[in-house]
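Could you help me review a protein record that somebody else here produced? Here is the record exactly as it was handed to me:
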Amino acid sequence: MAKTESPLRRQWMLLRLLCSRRHGLTVAELSQELETSSKTIRRDLDTFRTVGFAVEEVVGEFGRKSFKLPVKQDPPLAFTYDEALAMYLGRRHLDPLAGTVFWEAAQRAFRKIRSGLSDEAIAYIEKLAGSIHITSFGWGSYADKAELIDQILIAIEDHHPLIMTYQPERSTEPVEYEIYPYSLVQHQGWLYLIAWSRDSAAIRHFKIDRLIEIHQRSELRFSPPDGFDVSKHLEKSFGIYHGTDSLTVRVRFSSKVARYVTEKQWHPSQKTRRLRNGSVELTFELGTTAEVRQWIMSFGADAEVLEPEVLREEIRKRARMLLDTYKKKGESRGITRQSPGSESKK
């Protein structure tokens, strides 16, 4: 019996099959692969032809008809149809980089993709895109940093030092740094520069949003560390913060949030242990507790740090501060605690 599913998902899978099988597939084979009726497959093929996809019908031995989509199109694209559609759909993920060299290059690529597709095909893609919404909560915009980012990319490629004017988070005045730029990293919609700071004699992470000015020292060159790999550099980070400690962080989550926390791999080192009462323990190997502490506290009383003790104490301290803040604010507004049915006294 044919299974019921979204037509958009089925058609997407059909596109992938038509692009990936060099000799094509018959209607019966497509029907079997997608577990749907031959009538539905024929209707989907007609839809593709209507929107301008060059579905080819190949007649083989004994009149056997196969269907496929060509790898090359006219005008030419460097992608198969499903690859081009996937890239075009994914363009929204680049919105936080609007104005940067990445965004501008991507827009040129998307224009090339669009020129190879009919208006009907674009309308079909937009229909697909409508089924996926990308939130923009907390994402940065780098339109006003495009020139600075270009300079950084050139310096990374040519190994030129930079003199950077930067506004640290906890400083009232901008600070000037001489840095050797290694890599740009995007994390949760924000851009960071990983660089060696001569002032700190260490690798530092700089948030692009806080850059004020950059001067290239193009007369000088530096040599990046042998074998430097940004993914390895960040392997003990719970996001973007970097630390040199070696910490085992073990957290118990209540049964209320156990399903949520186990639906995602939060860190490459993550180990999961399910307990009989429905709760779950997650263990990480990290270099710093800065970001994992904030993440744990976001679960409130449904998360308890089991180790290390230093992290337990940090959370205790911050919980007391939070309680004091709300207690003081409540008192300043004349709010007093009262039992149900009683009236507050002023």
